[in-house]
């Protein structure tokens, strides 16, 4: 591959990447649904028009068939009048022939209208299938759009949270917590030590009084001395 082709490929891929970033899937889907709904409206309008033509041509065919049958009935009546002598044979046959000609013409027109009606009915069925298909596509894409919006919302929220979490320095945070823990333990130890010192430390007066009391014996009652003397527990003076 030549250098120019390679440069072209690189430029093309970068251009596609830029376009992909600029394109919003949700907006594109919304626009696609709007376009489909326009197509649906046009298809339904065409369907109504074709169905209307099919109904009219089918009605015209039926009317022509009825008219052909009526001309045949009139021709028979003309021949009957010839038999009863109400009309001359020449007039009766001439008018009956004209009636039969009109019957044939109406029959041909009825056949033509019937064929037209069938053709328009076939077109109507095809348009109906297209309308049904477009309706199904619109419903499908609207459901996908709902799902896409929900996914977009979730993705945005997740991206924001992950972005915030990515800015947190876990190692630095752990080190800071350990330092705070050590500081708290040190303060707790000092507080306990000061409490013990405050509990055991005596003032100078308390130490003097304790030393004086330590060397003297507690006073003994007179009755206790007499009891000890009686029992011979006191040393001889």
List the helices and strands and how they pair.
Layout: H1 3-22, H2 25-84, H3 89-166, H4 170-200, H5 204-215, H6 222-230
Helix pairs in contact: 2-3
Short characterization:
The protein has 237 residues and is mainly α.
CATH topology of the largest domain, by name, is Helix Hairpins
Helices, by number, come to 6
The total tally of domains equals: 2
The description of the largest β-sheet is:
none
Distance between the termini: 134 Å
Structural class by sheet pairing and helices: mainly alpha
Describe the structure.
The protein has 237 residues and is mainly α. It folds into two domains: 3-168, Helix Hairpins (Orthogonal Bundle); 172-203. The chain is built from six helices and no strands. The protein has helices spanning 3-22, 25-84, 89-166, 170-200, 204-215, 222-230. Helix 2 (25-84) runs antiparallel to helix 3 (89-166). It starts with a helix and ends in a 7-residue tail after the last helix. The mean pLDDT is 80.
Give a quick set of tags describing it.
rod-shaped; Helix Hairpins; single chain; 2 domains; 6 helices; 237 residues
């Amino acid at each position: 591959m030549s250098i120019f082709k390679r440069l072209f490929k690189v430029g093309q891929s970068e251009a596609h990447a830029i376009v992909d970033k600029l394109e919003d899937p949700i907006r594109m889907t919304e626009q696609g649904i709007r376009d489909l709904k326009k197509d649906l409206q046009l298809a339904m309008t065409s369907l109504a028009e074709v169905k209307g033509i099919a109904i009219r041509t089918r009605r015209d065919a039926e009317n022509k068939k009825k008219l052909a049958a009526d001309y045949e009935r009139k021709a028979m009546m003309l021949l009957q009048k010839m038999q009863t002598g109400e009309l001359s044979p020449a007039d009766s046959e001439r008018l009956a022939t004209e009636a039969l000609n009109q019957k044939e013409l109406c029959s041909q027109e009825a056949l033509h209208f019937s064929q037209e009606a069938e053709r328009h009915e076939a077109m109507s069925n095809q348009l109906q299938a297209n309308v049904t298909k477009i309706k199904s596509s619109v419903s499908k894409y609207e459901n996908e759009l709902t799902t896409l919006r929900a996914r977009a919302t979730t993705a945005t929220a997740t991206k924001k949270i992950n972005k915030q979490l990515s800015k947190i320095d876990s190692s630095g945070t752990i080190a800071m917590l350990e330092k705070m823990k050590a500081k708290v333990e040190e303060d707790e130890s000092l507080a306990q030590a000061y409490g013990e010192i405050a509990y055991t430390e005596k003032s100078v007066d308390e130490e003097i009084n304790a030393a004086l009391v330590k060397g003297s014996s507690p006073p003994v009652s007179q009755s206790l001395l007499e009891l000890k003397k009686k029992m011979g527990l006191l040393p001889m003076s």
